[in-house]
Amino acid sequence: MIIANKELLDKFETEKLTTRKQYDEVKAQVEQLIAEATEKGALEPDAVNEYTQKISLLSQQMAAYEDEYLNILPLRKKSPLISCIEDYFYAHGMKQKDGARLLGVNESQFSQIMSGRRRISMSFAKRLHSKLGINADLILEYA
User: Fold this and answer.
1) Among 43, 68, 105, 125, which residue has the least CB neighbours within 10 Å?
2) What is the pTM of this model?
3) Rounded to whole angstroms, how far apart are CA atoms 131 and 56?
4) Rounded to whole angstroms, how far apart are CA atoms 91 and 143?
5) What is the DSSP letter of 36?
């Protein structure tokens, strides 16, 4: 049984959020729902229940409001290749400057590659394969 403000929850499951006040009210309710569901153990992976359904619906309403009124940029999904490079450095206790040195590029270029602002050249791709042992298929697909 959900304790949060049921009237407010029901209203904004279907009505579009159009003001910051409505957005803030719904956000507070979602946070309360998450707290309640967590306390009751209703947020287990793959759980489908009244809590998860309400949280999902209200979160979609909040996302629509954010897209239309707040101009929040969506999160960019990190390339599996970049994640693989980062995992290698983490496993070997290396910092970005160490990686740049190992791969034969300056820190600025390496930073741009890692952030997606610079494309991976063929010579750099070869070094990823030979020096880090990254699978060539992964490099070809995401470089």
Assistant:
1) 68
2) 0.49
3) 44
4) 22
5) H
